[in-house]
């Protein structure tokens, strides 16, 4: 491990995306293993904060008061003064932007770790540089716990722990009660949305076809459609395409993120686009099917004991575009519901 300033607390500044926050958890595990006596606080946007609260290594989650976009230098200086009183020995700045690197520098935190990013010399004083091509996200963040070396040695890369989240039985029971889901019946979770753009979304009609296959094989199943308020319309389209199956429940926007975590923890299997909910399911070690089109399944794969990544690996993918530049979205359209059902079916067999 890289040397640390003695004493004090550690501050981790969160990425802005749920999936990235989940994939940064192994960094915290490595930091805690190196210094078990040191409390780790996380500074996170309110939209991402609930994920960090499900991590055993986190002592306290501080929610950022800043608006998206503007530099807000005066507000950052005031907030940094508050952080200075908490006695941080080091800070890990996970976003690559200048404005997040300003905070620990203004707070006078002596050791400030991060990637090169945008014009951050001096603000970051333990500077890492990414490999070319970029490494997968989990080892990308985990490398910050080590001395800056490029590329990351294979032995260290292979030793990175898997992302881990946990939800208590009480949290699961409360979330199921609020969503009116029966704890005695099997539960499958769908995540039909994707914050990045429509290109990452498996068609609603395909989710509907999969739902019909699941219900035909398991008549007592409940299928929860999860997501943010932005995903509610897409989830409703799934239900309509499935002919209004009673087993389907549109919970997009009707649960908090913490409740969605608890429902995923209860699920017997999760089928998801490449999204934050996919990485939550993976970190909860649920059986997962991840559907990839315009993104690379090797860059941010699921890590569950029972997981499958489905990608057609067409010549035009991964294009990493928000909308299909060719207008056909074949990378997702041509993944048939039957193909996903063949992969999902053995996951739904009760295991001892």
UniProtKB/TrEMBL annotation:
Pfam families registered for this protein in UniProt: Glyco_transf_9
GO annotations of cellular component type: cytosol
InterPro entries membership: Glyco_trans_9, LPS_LOS_Heptosyltrfase, RfaF
Superkingdom field: Bacteria
A GO BP entry: lipopolysaccharide core region biosynthetic process
Catalytic reaction annotation: an L-alpha-D-Hep-(1->5)-[alpha-Kdo-(2->4)]-alpha-Kdo-(2->6)-lipid A + ADP-L-glycero-beta-D-manno-heptose = an L-alpha-D-Hep-(1->3)-L-alpha-D-Hep-(1->5)-[alpha-Kdo-(2->4)]-alpha-Kdo-(2->6)-lipid A + ADP + H(+)
Keywords: Glycosyltransferase, Transferase
EC number in record: 2.4.99.24
Family assignment from sequence similarity: Belongs to the glycosyltransferase 9 family.
PANTHER family: ADP-HEPTOSE--LPS HEPTOSYLTRANSFERASE 2, TETRAACYLDISACCHARIDE 4'-KINASE-RELATED
Name of this protein: lipopolysaccharide heptosyltransferase II
């Amino acid at each position: 491990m890289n040397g640390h300033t003695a004493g004090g607390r550690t501050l981790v500044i969160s990425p802005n995306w749920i999936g990235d926050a989940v994939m940064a958890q192994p960094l915290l595990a490595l930091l805690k293993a190196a210094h078990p006596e040191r409390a780790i606080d996380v500074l996170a946007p309110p939209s991402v904060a609930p994920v960090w609260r499900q991590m055993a290594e986190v002592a306290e989650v501080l929610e950022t008061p800043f608006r998206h976009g503007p530099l807000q230098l005066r507000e950052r200086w005031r907030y940094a003064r508050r952080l200075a009183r908490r006695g941080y020995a080091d800070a890990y700045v996970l976003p690559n932007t200048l404005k997040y690197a300003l905070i620990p520098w203004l707070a006078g935190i002596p050791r400030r770790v991060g990637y090169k990013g945008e014009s951050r010399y001096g603000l970051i004083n333990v500077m890492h540089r990414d490999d070319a091509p970029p490494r997968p996200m989990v080892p990308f963040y985990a490398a910050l716990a080590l001395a800056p070396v490029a590329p990351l040695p294979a032995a260290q890369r292979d030793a990175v722990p898997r992302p881990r989240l946990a939800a208590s039985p009480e949290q699961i029971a409360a979330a199921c009660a609020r969503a009116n889901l029966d704890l005695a019946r099997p539960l499958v979770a769908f995540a039909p949305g994707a914050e990045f753009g429509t290109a990452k979304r498996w068609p609603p009609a395909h989710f509907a076809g999969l739902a019909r296959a699941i219900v035909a094989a398991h008549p007592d199943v409940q299928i929860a459609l999860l997501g943010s308020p932005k995903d509610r319309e897409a989830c409703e389209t799934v239900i309509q395409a499935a002919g209004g199956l009673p087993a389907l429940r549109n919970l997009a926007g009707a649960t908090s993120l913490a409740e969605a975590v608890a429902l995923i923890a209860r699920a017997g299997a999760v089928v998801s686009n490449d999204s934050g909910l996919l990485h939550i399911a993976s970190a909860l070690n649920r059986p997962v099917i991840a559907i990839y089109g315009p993104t690379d399944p090797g860059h941010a794969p699921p890590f569950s004991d029972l997981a499958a990544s489905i990608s057609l690996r067409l010549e035009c993918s991964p294009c990493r575009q928000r909308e299909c530049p060719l207008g056909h979205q074949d990378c997702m359209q041509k993944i048939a519901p039957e193909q996903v059902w063949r992969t999902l079916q053995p996951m739904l067999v009760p295991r001892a």
